[in-house]
Design goal:
Blueprint: E1 3-10, H1 13-26, E2 31-34, H2 38-50, E3 59-61, E4 72-75, E5 86-89, E6 103-109, H3 112-127, E7 131-136
Parallel strand pairs: 1-6, 1-7, 2-4, 2-5, 3-4, 5-6
Helix pairs in contact: 1-2
């Protein structure tokens, strides 16, 4: 069964996602990032290329020829997957087919527009018996 972690209290969802992805990359983890909003995907892509200033997090979009060999893949479609190890959900809705993944990570900011849909997803997962962990990062990731 998919393990689900909610990382909440982030001042900025995309910045927290970029920080979390840096840590995932340092641990050599494979992560599929579900980010269906084009502007959010572009902003995250820019953050992964520019922070830290002296490096970048190797990533690409799912339609890239390199998606199968790149550890972090950004996608707006979960139909064709290069792997099913870890899914980072940056959508406000349930990611389609999330149960295919070993792990699902949800990053939630302090914004009500982000928190309220996240509460509904948390409730959905809990009611279906998924193992849930919650971690507050308001003091830092």
């Amino acid at each position: 069964m998919t393990r689900i972690e909610f990382i909440h209290g982030a001042p900025d969802r995309l910045a927290a996602a970029a920080n979390w992805l840096r840590q995932a990359w340092a641990a050599r983890r494979q992560v599929l990032v579900y980010v269906p909003v084009r502007k959010a995907a572009e902003d995250l892509d820019r953050l992964l290329w520019s922070q830290p200033a002296t490096g970048f997090v190797p990533h690409c979009r799912s339609d890239s020829a390199l998606a199968g060999e790149t550890p972090i893949v950004l996608t707006d479609n979960l139909d064709r997957l290069p792997h099913d190890a870890c899914l980072l959900n940056l959508a406000d809705e349930l990611p389609p087919g999330f149960s295919r993944f070993e792990e699902l990570v949800e990053i939630v900011s302090t914004s009500d527009a982000d928190r309220l849909p996240a509460r509904e997803r948390f409730k959905f997962y809990r009611e279906r018996g998924y193992a849930l962990e919650a971690r507050d990062i308001s003091g830092g990731l």
